[in-house]
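Incident log entry.

Two folding requests arrived from the same account within the same minute. Monitoring flagged them as a possible duplicate submission, but the sequences differ. Recording both here for audit purposes.

Request one:
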Amino acid sequence: MVQQLIPPEIKPEIKPEIIYPDSDGNPMSDNTKQYEWIVKIKENLEILFAPNNDVFIAGDLLWYPVEGSVKTRQAPDVMVVFGRPKGDRGSYKQWQENNIPPQVVFEILSPGNSTKEMAKKILFYQRYGVEEYYIYNPDTIELTGFILEQECLEAIEDINNWVSPRLDIRFKLTADNLEIYYPHGAKFLTSVELNQRVEQEQQRADQEQQRADQEKQRADQEKQRAEQEYKNYQDLLAKLAAKGIDINNL
């Protein structure tokens, strides 16, 4: 009798889970000036696109463009992704985001940024589909911009008063600063400046309300005087009538 051998159960191969770190171990900024610019650009863009739920904006968030490649990554100072919902993310894994790359990226330079490092970044952004790339050096007041043309990030020749095709914001270089303007013309402000603007608007509103209250009070007083004068007139007519005097015959 031939004994039938039953093959052992074949277990599917289990691939080890790939861990994509949420931090690259580098600080968000090297100094206060760089940090302030990162926050200023990121928060004002958040305000600009607050009504649009399909625009995701992040600061210093790791972007992984290729599934399975942990070392293929960048953490732009600010990135904007059209076509992806707002929300919290530990990192931006592009294959989980309908394979949509950030279309606009900002980098704020610090003394620690090397030319070699920035060259690697521009090649990375070009390779993985960034459409607009802006680099600002707050120490030298220099703004450099690149725009994607035929799969290459080409330098923008005249960046002063340049309007971003994607964001519709305008960049203006002055002697001592970079100014960025909303599509409707208002200037990007820091959180402190925004708070001051809110306080000024509140003060103006309070003053307007105070003037309105004073006007109402004067109107009420005028009405009371008119009512009192009418009452006095009616009382006088009653007294004259009681004495048999008809003012129509006077």
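Request two (distinct sequence, not a duplicate):
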Amino acid sequence: MASVSESLNALLRTDGALCSALVDANSGMMLGSAGTGLDLELAAAGNTEVVRAKMRTMKSLGLNDAIEDILITLSKQYHIIRPVAAKPGIFMYLVLDKSRANLAMARRACQDAESSLTF
């Protein structure tokens, strides 16, 4: 099992990783962060709205399912949002340089970080 800091730093070892954060989707506040390249406080708050909107839409559609991850593809970056299944209301956030990242490996790194995370 890994601490929040250890899990976030492990994500930064992923090819192309720029920064990562653990976010409380109820408040939009970061519980931890690692790396540079973005205003992670602002990103945490903004991506909280993304998660909330998707949850509302799933509820409206009557989908009885869970989000594994949300991928936002920009022209130069990938942004991966991964809710922590064991802690409802918490999500991991990883930003990658698209030119250096392997998306499949990055998603796998998020899965591994989530499964080893302890609070």
